[in-house]
Amino acid sequence: MHQKAPTITPSWALAPLGGLLAGVVTVGIAEFLAGVVQRMGWSNGTPSPVLAVGGAFIDRTPPWLKTFAVDTFGTHDKQVLLGGIAVVLVLLSLLIGWLARTRFTMTLVVFVGLVAVAAAAVTSRPHAGVLDVLPLLVGAVAGLGVLSQWRRNLLAPKASDDRVVALDRRRALLLGGGAALGAVVLGLAGRAWSTGARAVQDARRAFRVPRVARPVAVPPGASVGVSGVTPFVVPNADFYRIDTALTVPQVDPASWRLRVTGMVDREVEIDWQTLLSKPMQEAMVTLMCVSNEVGGSLNGNAIWTGWPVRELLAQAGVRPGADMVLSRSVDGFTAGTPIEALTDDRNALIAVAMNGEALPAEHGFPVRLVVPGLYGYVSATKWLTELKVTTYARDMGYWTPRGWSAKGPVKTSSRIDVPRSGAKLKVGTIAVAGVAWHQHTGIEKVQVRVDSGDWQDARLGTSAGADVWRQWVYEWSATPGHHTLTVRAIDAVGQVQSSVVAPPAPDGSSGYHSVSVTVS
């Protein structure tokens, strides 16, 4: 009697694991090969499928979601995004494995569709080339082969006469786990190798801050001496970081170049040594992120060392009609800066040092822009590679088509650092203190109001210049009860901080910062 051939029906338990293994192999091999492609200099794009998908997601982030991410996760928003991508990849891989149990054709459709989405993300990145997709394709072929082999040989078939053919599932799991671990190690090794982090670390250690004719120092009395107030000069390790880079670019100064292009009499290109040979200046400048909510801490003051941007632009010769400089980062980010902010007498710098040491990698090493008076999204380009002299009619910075204002001047603002909202205080004299800022205009006065009372003048710390925030303190005779403390600033031209409450988008938040405290 002719006996029917056994039909393969992979185990419900092991089938999803096969999908997970295939996903890990796909991503691991793709990330390893992406690292090789980058390290060998065969790509100027983003061959890493994980980083490409993350970058494409950031590119399409609406202003409300950007603000939510920054408010919720702060400077950890990139790690959260990468973690989210990892979770989605795991879930999709498990789904693919489950589908492969009985619907292998549908599995192929889903798998190829996901690879196509990742490939589209890779090719959408700045400077993408044909080779950028190759690591993903090789990884996908390997992953699909693993999934097919797992389904064919490693999962338990069931015979038509109900006889079960025993398989060594432990061996299958060990082999699969070993392959997955190997793929993960390959991927991590490729990513680490591609960054060239060691060369960058060596370059930072060897860097010596150029001497300047007039060093900058914190003036006596700039700090009001109240514990809990943000330091007048924020240490590099504590300085806020907001940018679009999923991983910190590692740029070797030996290969770094800065080009001036666009509406200029002559295009100029300088390398690292040429830049360091220029007459450097120091400037104390407070930087500000446009995503900062009222009372937020996405700002910081530092001493920057660099070459004035206006001198480089003068060397190139700006043509009449230009009104904007589009600065470009190595990761593709762009910022559109009003040309007058880079050519007037403010301390707009091509910066190489921060607080007396080489720029930290996360703050732009080897070179970044520092421009007083503008929010960072239109001025503070890190890992700087190009200055394109152009017009607002012709070009837009990264965030402008995503709903943010084109020019981004900083608004007059103030913040209460101490006491914190919800604090329980004792009756007596309480130091209410914080910072106020309106870069490139300066702060003339800060006032505090208790509940609905009159505005009272606070004592200001010594001014360090119009581009720098000022600390302030108000000695409050606290009485028992629940109280609301509110602060406002008045800038150097007499403009009172706006009381109109507005969100960060599209041109910066506004409104008075208040804290509620209880005194007993």
What features would you describe in this structure?
The protein is of the alpha+beta class. It is 32% helix and 22% strand. It has helices at residues 14-39, 49-59, 63-73, 77-100, 104-124, 134-154, 169-195, 197-206, 272-276, 309-316, 339-343, and strands at 257-262, 268-271, 281-288, 299-308, 324-329, 334-338, 349-354, 357-358, 368-370, 384-390, 413-418, 424-425, 428-437, 443-450, 456-457, 459-460, 470-478, 481-491, 513-519. The strands form four sheets. It has a five-stranded mixed beta sheet with strand order 2-1-10-5-6. Strands 3, 4, 7, 8 and 9 form a five-stranded antiparallel beta sheet that branches. The longest helix has 27 residues, at 169-195. The protein is globular, with a radius of gyration of 28 Å. Residues 501-520 are annotated as: Disordered. InterPro entries: Ig_E-set, OxRdtase_Mopterin-bd_dom, OxRdtase_Mopterin-bd_sf. Pfam families: Oxidored_molyb. Residues 246-398 form the Oxidoreductase molybdopterin-binding domain.
- Mean pLDDT score: 89
Q: Tell me, what's the shape?
A: globular
Total tally of structural domains: 3
What share of the residues lie within helices? 25-40%
Protein name: Molybdopterin-dependent oxidoreductase
Domain Oxidoreductase molybdopterin-binding: 246-398
GO biological process, one term: sulfur compound metabolic process
GO molecular function, one term: sulfite oxidase activity
